[in-house]
Structure formats: structure tokens, C-alpha cells
Specification:
Layout (H helix, E strand, L loop, with lengths): L1 H12 L20 H8 L4 E6 L6 E6 L3 E6 L2 E7 L16 H7 L4 E5 L3 E6 L6 E8 L2 E9 L3
Antiparallel strand pairs: 1-2, 2-3, 3-4, 4-8, 5-6, 6-7, 7-8
Length: 150
């Protein structure tokens, strides 16, 4: 029983904790090296590779369940937030109404859109950052944040 309690505590303490109103500080992840990533978030639940549109665009992905980070040259350049991520990213929460999500991003410049996604520029950082929102069944289904200079 004592071992079960210790295991439970280790599992609970291994997840980052944010208040409901707090924005996830994804910007601190951008450019983070592998050692800092593991020091901050622990060992990922899985590691895999993703091939980009071009052969040279391979990425290593550290999947933490609720979010995944894409690595290039041993640094984070892209973050994917998935269904299990329950905190806000730029005021967005996965599963929210698509029109409401897009409307909340009106202060940002829209640089691309099609039927399934929209790409916005996030201008306040010292390097270029883009926010990609994707929909499925008229709800916000995925959020990508990435450095557009990598």
C-alpha cells in the first residue's frame, strides 16, 4: 500500500500544474534544449520522428501526452497541444467553439487560412512565432505554435 501511495505521488508531481486562468508558458519552451526540457517536464511518454514535406525536414518529437514538442538541432521549435491539454494558450482552450476561438484571435494578423485551419502571427516575441488553429466538427481541435524562422 505504501508503494502505491509513493507511485501515486510521483505520477502527480511529474505533471506541470497551472491555474485555470493561467496561460501555459509555451514561449519558455521555444528554443529550449533537450536537457532543460527533461529537467522541466521529465521523460516524455514517447519519442518518435516526423517527416516533413521535404526529405530534410525530419523532426524528433517528445510526446508528453497533453502536448508534444518538435525538436530541430536539439532545440524545441514547434509545440502541438492535443485533446488532453486543459489549459489556455493565447486564451484558447481545445474543444471551444471554432467561431469563438477565431474571433478571440482578431488582434493577431491572419497569414493563411483554408477550410480546416488558420495561421496567425504572434508579433510580441523577439523572434517570429506563428499560431496554427485547426478545427474538426466546428470546434477547436488542435493548436500548434512554432518558430517560423527555423
Amino acid at each position: 500500500m505504501k508503494r502505491l501511495f509513493v507511485l501515486f505521488c510521483v505520477i502527480i508531481l511529474s505533471f506541470p500544474v497551472f491555474s485555470d486562468d493561467e496561460l501555459f508558458d509555451y514561449v519558455s519552451l521555444m528554443g529550449m534544449d533537450i536537457a532543460s526540457l527533461i529537467d522541466t517536464y521529465g521523460i516524455p511518454s514517447s519519442v518518435y520522428s516526423v517527416r516533413g514535406a521535404e526529405e530534410w525536414q525530419d523532426d524528433v518529437v517528445f510526446d508528453y501526452g497533453a502536448f508534444a514538442v518538435f525538436l530541430w538541432d536539439n532545440r524545441v521549435w514547434q509545440i502541438l497541444f492535443t485533446d488532453d491539454f486543459a489549459y489556455k494558450v493565447e486564451g484558447l482552450v481545445l474543444g471551444m467553439n471554432w467561431d469563438e476561438a477565431v474571433s478571440s484571435l482578431s488582434a493577431f494578423s491572419l497569414v493563411f487560412e483554408d477550410d480546416e485551419k488558420k495561421v496567425f502571427v504572434l508579433p510580441r516575441w523577439s523572434y517570429p512565432v506563428r499560431l496554427v488553429v485547426m478545427k474538426e466538427n466546428d470546434v477547436l481541435s488542435k493548436i500548434y505554435v512554432y518558430r517560423s524562422d527555423f
